[in-house]
TrEMBL record:
Coiled coil: none
GO cellular component, one term: nucleus
PANTHER family: 8-OXOGUANINE DNA GLYCOSYLASE, N-GLYCOSYLASE_DNA LYASE
Keywords: DNA damage, DNA repair, Glycosidase, Hydrolase, Lyase, Multifunctional enzyme
The keyword Lyase belongs to this UniProt entry's keyword annotation: yes
Gene3D superfamilies named in the record: 3.30.310.40, Helix-hairpin-Helix base-excision DNA repair enzymes (C-terminal), Hypothetical protein, domain 2
SUPFAM superfamilies reported for this sequence: DNA-glycosylase, TATA-box binding protein-like
Domain HhH-GPD: 151-343
Protein name as it appears in the record: DNA-(apurinic or apyrimidinic site) lyase
Enzyme class: lyase
EC numbers for this chain: 4.2.99.18
Sequence segments annotated as region (Disordered): 352-404
Keyword DNA repair listed: yes
Source species of the chain: Serendipita indica (strain DSM 11827) (Root endophyte fungus)
Length: 404
């Protein structure tokens, strides 16, 4: 039976169904923070991942969700501002948090069954899955997902995270302030202020573009502000409008997204896959194209300047078609496994040591991979027509609050 951390509730869930260490660090969502925990006292007969190694935190607009995981259990709790709650109110909030988790991680989808299907279809996937189990597509808030991937153009995972966090600190609602976990490796006990993602109306003023440039967004600053303004000008409830795109056919939903500033085909497809339920959409850039060339028989593509493959609509469509034919209805989900496995920051993921030969690990990995670097930037290579130089984004603006 799982050792439930103090204050947490438990949900039976094997790592093969969800690996937080992979899913929250592979470039789908950019706001989850991870806090290393002090090592538990492991008994000889216990596997390496018998105890959670990290706590993951995400600020929603009214709470901070905290997660931990061992080999067969997901532990969760939500933190709120210090307001006294009745027993019924507390139970209601616990239920809301669990419902959010089930929706966000799409836990109604049997990932083990999907992996089995993909492995039967594709020997490349079969080999990759030995180390990279538990990678599923998140079902994110469409507005946050849209703005985050506008920030992703010609960018890399770590820097996108810094930019999005700065946006939330500057314009988002304060969910609450929390100190590090008592059993963490953090030496400071100062509370950290957690900010939710801002609503569209908070980003419409022209001053937003100026401020985001000061925060290192470069040309993306104008795209963020103009997209928020377009959504608010054209729709009474912009967030409901974006959620409503889930009901449209893929091509119609894509056409709506392409109207937004800073949204090209690759960014639109990321949004379709990661927040609009279009599970067979495969976002393609030069990085994914190289995977298709290397493993899936696409041939004859001319090399562009510097050895890079020029992305054309014809090439984009050819790669999508090939990968959907290979993986089927959940092709976008399968693509995320191959993409994650190809990231340099995940090179040693699931191995006993950095020098280990890639093979099936005895137990699934739970440790967080190194922070992604600029070497992974090509995944976010959809560059706007007009490029402007931008300064490096400042560090994440997580505010610490002194505690007595």
């Amino acid at each position: 039976m799982a050792n439930i951390p103090k204050g947490f509730k438990s949900l039976p869930l094997p790592i093969a169904q969800l690996s937080l260490a992979a899913v929250l660090k592979c470039g789908q969502s950019f706001r989850w923070s991870s806090i290393p925990l002090a090592a538990g006292v492991k008994q000889e007969e216990e596997p390496e991942n018998a105890y959670p190694s990290h706590e993951y935190r995400l600020a929603l607009r009214d709470r901070v969700v905290c997660l931990r995981q061992d080999k067969d259990t997901l532990f969760y709790r939500a933190a709120f501002p210090d307001v006294p709650l009745s027993e019924d109110q507390s139970a209601k909030r616990d239920k809301e948090t669990l419902e959010w988790l089930r929706d966000y991680f799409q836990l109604d989808v049997d990932l083990v069954k999907l992996y089995s299907d993909w492995a039967e279809r594709d020997v490349v996937f079969k080999e990759t899955a030995l180390r990279f189990s538990g990678i599923r597509i998140l079902r994110q808030d469409p507005f946050e997902n849209t703005i985050s991937f506008i920030c992703s153009s010609n960018n890399h995972i770590n820097r996108i995270g810094k930019m999005v966090q700065s946006l939330c600190t500057e314009y988002g609602p304060l969910a609450c302030s929390l100190p590090p976990p008592e059993d963490s490796e953090e030496t400071s006990r100062d509370a950290i202020a957690y900010y939710g993602f801002p609503t569209p109306d908070k980003l419409t003023d022209e001053s937003v573009s100026t401020r985001l440039r000061e925060l290192g967004f470069g040309y993306r600053a104008e795209y963020v502000q103009r997209t928020a303004q377009m959504l608010c000008d054209e729709h009474e409830d912009p967030e409901s409008y974006l959620v409503g795109l889930r009901k449209l056919p893929v091509e119609e939903a894509r056409a709506e997204l392409l109207k937004l500033c800073g949204v090209g085909p690759k960014v639109a497809d990321c949004i379709l896959l990661m927040s609009l339920d279009k599970r067979n959409v495969v976002p393609v850039d030069t990085h994914v194209h190289q995977i298709a060339l290397k493993y899936y028989g696409l041939r004859g593509t001319p090399q562009g300047k510097g050895g890079k493959v020029p992305m054309t609509p014809k090439i984009y469509e050819a790669v999508c078609t090939k990968l959907v034919e290979t993986w089927g209805d959940y092709a976008g989900w399968a693509h995320s496994v191959l993409f994650t496995a190809d990231l340099r920051s995940f090179a040693n993921y699931g191995l006993a040591s950095p020098d280990s030969t890639p093979s099936k690990p005895e137990t699934p990995a739970t440790s967080v991979p190194p922070t992604p670097t600029e070497s992974d930037a090509d995944y976010f290579g959809e560059t706007p027509t007009k490029k402007r130089r931008s300064r490096t984004a400042s560090a994440p603006r997580l505010k610490r609050v002194k505690t007595e």
